[in-house]
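Example for tutorial group B:
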């Protein structure tokens, strides 16, 4: 850990690579109820305990019969409904009325759509032959008994919950939640709900991060607002490092007079202070604290959000045991056309906040308003980051840019 000695800025991809290389995923596992498994990471492969579908069943409303009896006139001997199978065997010249999802009766090997049948009391007439196996969903066609359904290291989505339920699984083995301790620093910070005071501002970072952290498999300890005072910080960090896998703080990582975070961390842990070539979010601290990891995010709320998305989310995903490739692209990246010029200086990767629209197969993006790192409105109005490469200068109207869509948690 030598970057504090180097004055140059660390490219964001290098920062991420260095960071991820050091992190060792949590190993402990636990069993959770299926409905509590959303966004958790599978600790072991899920092997299908049954066939899905469990038995051969009908893909249509129609008639189940023996293919060799078609075309012809057949005797109707009963019905098979979903959940209410016909329990006798179909013999030569017989058929059974069958509904979608109902069990194929023994003896039957094809299903004829009701539209292709002339029904008349206890008999039906088929004018065409019905191929063997027609309109039958085979047992195990979706998932075969014993096959691997989901792999260890997969983060469970709402769709997976449906899939696992289709296998009859009520419990799932997942990696235990990551224990995160969160604190914000600053003498100026008031909690939401407090009366305004001269020179004070409301603490937006802690609620923001708490909300963001809810989307990850995290068990949170909120240590609150810590004043700009070395003893208070020392106490908070000492407490946090007892149990936390990860300590996240905001503020106090630059070089101001009241920025004690780095002194205390150097005292209690092994910390890198990185100047990352990204905008916003240049000052960023990362390192070890006790048995856990420390992430010191910048105090400006937009910088907090950007560094959280770009550096902390990949780190938490790796720690949580997710094996899907974890990169800066925790959200989908697209190519878009700039609706207007975007100001930028070469040197750092910009994460500007943008509003993207999709028209005739093309993404068009515009700025979401003021781009200052203290301005959360632009971020809240945005639906994507506009990621501008470090070496790039200002962008002209009509140029192609990369965007990172915000909404990656819909499934
Ligand atoms: P710092 O990194 O502590 O120097 O803070 C940089 C800027 O972010 C200052 O204007 C702080 O007042 C502001 N800031 C720091 N922490 C927070 C927070 N939790 N919520 C809102 N603004 C903050
Ligand atoms: Mg501060």
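The residue assignment follows.
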């Amino acid at each position: 850990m030598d970057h504090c000695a180097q004055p140059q800025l660390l490219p964001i991809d290098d920062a991420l690579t260095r960071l991820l290389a050091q992190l060792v995923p949590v190993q402990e596992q636990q069993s959770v109820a299926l409905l509590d498994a959303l966004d958790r990471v599978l600790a072991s492969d899920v092997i299908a305990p049954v066939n899905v579908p469990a038995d051969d069943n009908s893909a249509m409303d129609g008639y189940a019969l023996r293919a060799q009896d078609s075309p012809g006139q057949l005797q109707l001997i009963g019905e098979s409904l979903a959940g209410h199978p016909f329990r006798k065997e179909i013999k030569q010249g017989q058929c059974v009325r069958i509904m979608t999802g109902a069990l194929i009766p023994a003896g039957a090997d094809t299903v004829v759509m009701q539209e292709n049948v002339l029904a008349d009391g206890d008999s039906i007439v088929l004018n065409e032959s019905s191929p063997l196996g027609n309109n039958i969903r085979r047992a195990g066609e979706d998932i075969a008994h014993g096959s691997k359904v989901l792999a260890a290291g997969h983060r469970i989505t709402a769709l997976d919950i449906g899939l696992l339920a289709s296998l009859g699984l009520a419990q799932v083995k997942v990696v235990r939640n990551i224990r995160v301790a969160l604190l914000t620093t600053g003498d100026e910070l008031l909690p939401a709900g407090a009366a305004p005071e001269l020179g004070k501002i409301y603490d937006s970072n802690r609620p923001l991060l708490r909300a963001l952290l809810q989307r990850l498999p995290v068990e949170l300890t909120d240590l609150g607002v810590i004043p700009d005072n070395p003893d208070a910080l020392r106490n908070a960090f000492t407490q946090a490092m007892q149990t936390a896998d990860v300590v996240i703080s905001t503020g106090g990582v630059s070089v101001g007079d009241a920025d004690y975070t780095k002194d205390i961390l150097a005292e209690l842990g092994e910390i890198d202070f990185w100047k990352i070539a990204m905008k916003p979010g240049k000052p960023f601290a990362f390192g070890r604290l006790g048995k856990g990891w420390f992430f010191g995010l910048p105090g400006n709320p937009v910088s907090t959000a950007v560094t959280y998305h770009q550096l902390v989310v990949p780190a938490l995903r790796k720690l949580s045991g997710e094996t899907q490739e974890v990169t800066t692209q925790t959200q989908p990246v697209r190519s878009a056309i700039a609706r207007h010029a975007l100001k930028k200086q070469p040197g750092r990767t910009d994460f500007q906040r943008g509003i993207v629209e999709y028209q005739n197969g093309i993404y068009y993006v515009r700025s979401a308003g003021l781009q200052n790192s203290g301005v959360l409105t632009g971020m809240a109005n945005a639906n994507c980051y506009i990621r501008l490469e470090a070496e790039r200068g200002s962008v002209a109207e009509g140029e192609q840019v990369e965007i990172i869509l915000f909404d990656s948690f819909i499934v």
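The chain has four domains: 10-28+177-328, 34-51+144-175, 57-137, 331-405. Compare this with the pattern of hydrophobic and polar residues in the output above.
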